[in-house]
UniProtKB/TrEMBL annotation:
A biological process from GO: CAAX-box protein maturation
Keyword Transmembrane: yes
A molecular-function term among this protein's GO annotations: endopeptidase activity
Record-annotated membrane-spanning stretches: 20-42, 62-81, 102-124, 189-210, 222-239
Source organism (scientific name): Clostridium porci
Alphabetized Pfam families for the sequence: Rce1-like
Protein name: CPBP family intramembrane metalloprotease
Annotated keywords: Hydrolase, Membrane, Metalloprotease, Protease, Transmembrane, Transmembrane helix
Length: 240
């Protein structure tokens, strides 16, 4: 433990991360995901189908859970070595914030529904776009593996995008936010550019704006709303 303490270069708690910190954390948490997503995008471009790319088995979910858990621990260990001030991360779990999480999911899901309707309108016409959105869709199959993975994934992604990327010098928050959008987009490309743009740019911007506008900047609602979307999907009209 004494050796690890000596590795800490900062005696005072670090509240603002530098650009290389964000770069290192990005590589740790999303380097593999970005490479895998990019390969998946080109592979599915060749076959002309992106549907198969979003189907995961229970084994895939458990494997992803273990990988993310390990990578998250490595990232947190790096921040500990940097003497990062973890106390600035506010995670308050209350009935009110849980209800807010559900509302946040509903708003985000409705926004994604409208986004895909607009995209469909451009691609196939207004009538077909509306009718396509109205077609009943069966609920996704929910098992223990997806629940466990979703709970971790919501924390894993949003602790990076909101908890790490925005812990920079206030003058550099906008640049860090734009970089975070690029990262969020880049590891969703295996779903296709349309979906990646919606998830990476639209949802990323919505989460950023709501988080920045919130008074206490509580991370918990964003963790949970993200997890709900991982379980039910980024849409709500088919649930009505």
């Amino acid at each position: 433990m004494k050796l690890l303490e000596r590795l800490k270069r900062n005696k005072e708690p670090v509240r603002e991360l530098r650009w290389w910190d964000i770069g290192i954390l990005t590589v740790i948490l999303f380097g593999n995901a970005i490479c895998t997503s990019t390969r998946g995008y080109f592979a599915n471009t060749d076959t002309g189908s992106f549907e198969e790319a979003v189907e995961f088995s229970a084994a895939d979910n458990y494997g992803a859970f273990m990988l993310q858990l390990i990578l998250l621990l490595i990232a947190l260990f790096y921040l500990w070595l940097r003497n990062f001030d973890f106390s600035q991360w506010r995670i308050h779990v209350t009935p009110k914030t849980t209800l807010y999480s559900v509302g946040l999911f509903a708003v985000a899901a409705l926004m994604m529904d409208l986004y895909f309707i607009v995209v469909s309108y451009v691609q196939i016409g207004a009538y077909d776009a509306v009718m396509s959105a109205a077609v009943p869709v069966s609920l996704p199959v929910i098992d223990g593996s997806i629940l466990i993975y979703a709970l971790l994934n919501g924390i894993y992604e949003e602790i990076y995008f909101l908890g790490m990327c925005l812990c920079v010098n206030p003058k550099k928050v906008r640049g860090a936010f734009l970089f975070s959008l690029l990262v969020r987009f880049s590891f969703h490309t295996y779903q296709g550019m349309v979906s990646a743009a919606g998830i990476g740019l639209l949802l990323g911007t919505l989460y950023y704006v709501l988080y920045e506008k919130s008074g206490r900047k509580n991370l918990y609602p964003f963790f949970l709303s993200h997890s709900i979307a991982d379980v039910l999907g980024a849409g709500i009209l088919f649930l009505l």
